[in-house]
């Protein structure tokens, strides 16, 4: 009797599953709730994070890549519904199972759709909305100077740990200093909170400096293959000579000719405290951008339970979607005041020459400039 009962339950379970999937076009979330949201622009944007126009434009771009043909046995899931499933996953971070239940599709189907659509989003948008800067390096530098009062700055660099479920048999490769498992999103951000370069997928156990050194961007920066602008005079400081363009980062990164980090220690001179404050003010742009990203795409606020490869695809998709959605960001520019002369501190070797003499000289010059010709009215009160 028990065997017969179990057999009937299994048969009923299979039949029920088929019946649920077959009613997708009548009761599935895309065909019911999403269609109702079409009439409410605000709720539509909260649901997908994109408004109607952005969703339609994105669908136009990725639709040809994600469209599938009908077969003799079943109708294919439309490109719009496939895009909706992917965006909903990125916007919520829900499990594949919960997405499958609400959209009335198979769990395995969701597992195919999300990484496939995420890859299509990245490949269709990256060349237009996240190209590696070339001719526009100078525009980025001017915007950093105008909005964040840091001259010759080409971007803010930092790494973000994207928390994932511990991959099978991975040991401690993904285990980070925070006590979680993660992959690293290394990003270069411009003055308008837009990603300019991203490197995704480094093991969570690596430091930010190690992630930068092993990334393609870090290698290109070290080897001089980024086509950075020529050295340039600092505004109103011709006597300091031409100075290189730099990226700003925190103390986890190395000091290099084109990469500035704060002065170490707590017992610092006024000039060095001012430099650290001004550098931190420009560097916070990347942390603010990470905050906007995780607020927009809530998958970052959960432990992502897919493979590291799929997580990498989803992270790339959210970064390029962030740029796609972000047209312009206006920020008030700071003002200048009369200089207060400060002498240059002597150049000295640091540690085991981890930073070159030239890099130290660049930081010292910038520190002197920001306390004199490049000072802003409020810096002494803050620093």
Structural commentary:
The protein is α/β, with parallel strands linked by helices. The chain has two domains: 2-129, no CATH class; 137-382, no CATH class. Helices cover 49% and strands 11% of the residues. The protein has a five-stranded mixed beta sheet, sandwiched between helices. Strands 4-5 form a two-stranded antiparallel sheet. The model is unreliable at 8-12 and 328-353 (pLDDT under 50). Its cofactor is a divalent metal cation.
Key structural traits:
49% helix; 7 strands; single chain; 2 domains; 383 residues; 5-stranded mixed beta sheet; alpha/beta; nuclease; HARBI1_dom
Give a brief rundown of this model.
This protein has helices at about 1-20, 25, 35, 40-50, 50-65, 80-90, 95-105, 105-130, 135-150, 210-215, 215-225, 270-295, 310-325, 355-370, 380, and strands spanning about 155-165, 180-190, 195-205, 230-235, 235-245, 245-250, 260. The chain is of the alpha/beta class.
Strand order of the largest sheet: 3-2-1-6-7
Supply the number of structural domains.
2
| Distance N to C terminus | 80 Å
Beta percentage is: 5-15%
Secondary structure layout plus pairing:
Layout: H1 2-22, H2 24-27, H3 33-37, H4 41-48, H5 52-66, H6 79-92, H7 96-103, H8 107-129, H9 137-148, E1 153-163, E2 182-189, E3 195-203, H10 208-214, H11 216-223, E4 232-234, E5 237-243, E6 246-248, E7 259-260, H12 270-296, H13 308-325, H14 357-371, H15 379-382
Parallel strand pairs: 1-6, 6-7
Antiparallel strand pairs: 1-2, 2-3, 4-5
Helix pairs in contact: 5-6, 5-8, 6-8, 7-8, 8-13, 10-11, 12-14
């Amino acid at each position: 009797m028990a065997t017969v009962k179990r057999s009937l339950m299994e048969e009923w379970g299979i039949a029920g599953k088929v019946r649920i999937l077959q009613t997708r076009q009548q009761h599935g979330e895309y065909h019911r709730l999403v269609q109702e949201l079409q009439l409410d622009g605000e709720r539509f944007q909260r649901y997908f994070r994109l408004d109607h126009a952005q969703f339609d434009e994105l669908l136009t771009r990725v639709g040809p890549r994600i469209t599938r043909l009908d077969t003799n046995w079943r109708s294919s899931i439309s490109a719009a519904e496939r895009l909706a499933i992917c965006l909903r996953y990125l916007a919520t971070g829900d499990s594949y199972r919960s997405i499958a239940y609400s959209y009335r599709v198979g769990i395995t189907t969701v597992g195919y759709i999300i990484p496939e659509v995420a890859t299509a989003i990245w490949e269709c948008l990256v060349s237009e909305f996240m190209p590696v800067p070339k001719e526009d390096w100078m525009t980025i530098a001017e915007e950093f100077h105008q909005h964040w009062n840091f001259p010759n700055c080409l971007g803010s660099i930092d790494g973000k740990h994207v928390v994932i479920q511990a991959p099978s048999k991975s040991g401690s490769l993904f285990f980070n200093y925070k006590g979680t498992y993660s992959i690293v999103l290394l990003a270069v951000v411009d003055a308008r909170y837009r990603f300019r370069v991203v490197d995704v997928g480094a093991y969570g156990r690596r430091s930010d400096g190690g992630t930068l050194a092993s990334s393609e961007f870090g290698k290109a920066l070290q080897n001089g293959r980024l086509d950075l602008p020529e050295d340039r005079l600092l505004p109103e400081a011709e006597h300091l000579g031409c100075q290189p363009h730099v990226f700003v980062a925190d103390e986890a990164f190395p000091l290099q000719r084109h990469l500035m980090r704060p002065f170490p220690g707590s017992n610092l001179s006024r000039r060095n405290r001012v430099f650290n404050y001004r550098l931190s003010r420009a560097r916070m742009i990347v942390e603010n951008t990470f905050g906007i990203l995780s607020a927009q795409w809530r998958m970052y606020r959960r432990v992502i339970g897919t493979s590291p490869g799929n997580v990498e695809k989803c992270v790339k998709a959210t970064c390029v979607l962030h740029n796609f959605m972000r047209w312009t960001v206006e920020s008030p520019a700071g003002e200048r005041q009369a200089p207060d002369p400060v002498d240059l501190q002597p150049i000295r070797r640091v540690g085991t020459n981890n930073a070159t003499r030239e890099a130290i000289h660049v930081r010292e010059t910038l520190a002197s400039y920001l306390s004199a010709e490049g000072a802003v009215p409020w810096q002494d009160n803050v620093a």
